[in-house]
Structures are given as structure tokens and as C-alpha cells.
């Protein structure tokens, strides 16, 4: 899990850098529009592509840290063992769904490459976004499957599942 943790951390750092760059681009474009009457051409396209890639790049870290939404309304009174079993089953299910998403995203990227698909304003090649998304989705898949099969313990620094508050009344 240590290797997966390092890869997830690298993806999250890359996503953060991507968001910082697109924020700087957006601020520059807004200032240019307000002060000089001229914006950066295609800034919204680059922002959309970057946001999509950043979401995918943040997913491995989120899964590693167990940051996905857990609906525990129905399991609050279940034993820790039952909750762990359900969490592991959920991680396995998520891993299977993400495996499908990875496969389909990869096919979309290959299609974008083969057709030379690009954005409308800049002609920015769409396959570059897929190039960032596919490895991140594959890593998230792997992390979810390992968590589902081996559990959530270990030395990866992953956060523990929050426990329900004790009723003190």
C-alpha cells in the first residue's frame, strides 16, 4: 500500500498544481478583460479541461484516505465488524465501477487521438486530458480493490472511518 500511497499523493500534488495554474490563467484573463478589454482566448476551455483532469487526479488520494461519502444512517448501530464488511464490499463495488470507467475513458482517449479531436476555440487536443485521467482512474481502481480485499488497515496513513457520536443523554 505504500507505493499506492505515494502514487496517490503524487496525483493529488499534480492536481493541485493544475488547479493553481488554471486559477492563475483565469485571474489573468479576468484582469485582462476588465483592465484591457481583452481576455485570454479559450480560457474557459482550458479551465474545463483542467478541472476534469484535476477531479480524476484527486480521486486516488480521496479513496486512499477514505474521503468518499459514507452513508452510515442505517449502519450506525451495526457492529464495527459489520461496518467493516460493508465498507470493504463498498470498496470492491467502487473498484469494479472505476475499472469500467477506466476502460471507457481509455477508449474515449484513443478515439480522441485517432480522430484528432480538439477544443473548439483553441483546437487543444482532447486526448491530453484523457492521458491525465486514465492513470488516475486506474490507480483509484487499484486502491479500491486492495482496500476491498485486504481491508483498510496498514501503514499508508489512511484516515480511519469516522465513528458515530456516542449518545450521552
Structural description of this entry:
- The chain has 169 residues and is mainly α.
- The chain contains four helices and no strands.
- It has helices spanning 2-36, 43-64, 80-115, 127-150.
- Helix 1 (2-36) packs antiparallel against helix 4 and helix 2 runs parallel beside helix 4.
Give a topology summary.
Elements lengths: L1 H35 L6 H22 L15 H36 L11 H24 L19
Helix pairs in contact: 1-2, 1-4, 2-4, 3-4
Tally of DSSP helical segments: 4
Write down the overall mean pLDDT: 88
Describe the biggest sheet?
none
Shape: elongated
Low-pLDDT segments, ≥5 res: 155-159
Order of helices and strands: HHHH
Percentage of helical residues? 55-70%
Radius of gyration: 20 Å
The count of β-strands is 0
Terminal Cα span: 41 Å
Strand content: under 5%
Based on secondary structure, the structural category is mainly alpha
Subunit organisation of the chains: single chain
